[in-house]
Specification:
This protein has 173 residues and is low in regular secondary structure. The protein has one helix and two strands. A two-stranded parallel ribbon has the order 1-2. The mean pLDDT is 96.
């Protein structure tokens, strides 16, 4: 796996390169990075700093984003299937139409995130905070929601999700 600095990534992206498969950008500062359609599949971005970034239609399949700062990021139509986003901050993120199948979102902060029509099939959302999130038309089939906070989340359909008594529903109980 190639270690890449934020500066190198941005320079290569500006020159037209989009495929950055299996690169290490751990702890890099990519504040407000504008990287639509980038391929970072199988990459490592642990503790990366990407708030207010634009990763619209990005391929982040199996990407490691543990403890990453992703507040207010645009991940519209992004592929985050099987990505590890445990403890990541995705507050107010735009995840509309995103593919989050099988993603690990344990203890992630998704407060106020927009998950309209997102696919969260088999996602692990245990102990995640989805308070005030928009879950309209989100697919939560077999999503694990034990200990998850859904207080004041909007238009959520939990009929196919795996909830237990520790799950806080949209009504607060």
């Amino acid at each position: 796996m190639q270690k890449l600095s934020a500066e190198e990534l941005l320079a290569q992206y500006a020159e037209g390169k989009r495929n950055f498969n299996a690169v290490d950008l751990s702890e890099d500062n990519l504040f407000q990075a504008d990287l639509p359609e980038i391929n970072l599949s199988d990459s490592v971005l642990r503790r990366a700093y990407l708030p207010y970034g634009n990763l619209t239609q990005a391929n982040l399949y199996k990407t490691e984003l543990q403890d990453a700062e992703l507040g207010d990021i645009k991940l519209y139509q992004a592929n985050l299937s099987q990505a590890n986003l445990s403890r990541a901050n995705l507050s107010r993120a735009n995840l509309r139409h995103a593919n989050l199948q099988g993603a690990n979102l344990q203890k992630a902060n998704l407060q106020g995130a927009d998950l309209y029509n997102a696919d969260l099939t088999n996602a692990d959302l245990r102990y995640a905070d989805l308070s005030r999130a928009n879950l309209e038309k989100a697919n939560l089939t077999k999503a694990k929601l034990a200990g998850c906070n859904l207080f004041r989340s909007r238009l959520v359909d939990l009929s196919e999700a795996e909830c237990d008594r520790t799950t806080i529903g949209p009504e607060g109980y």
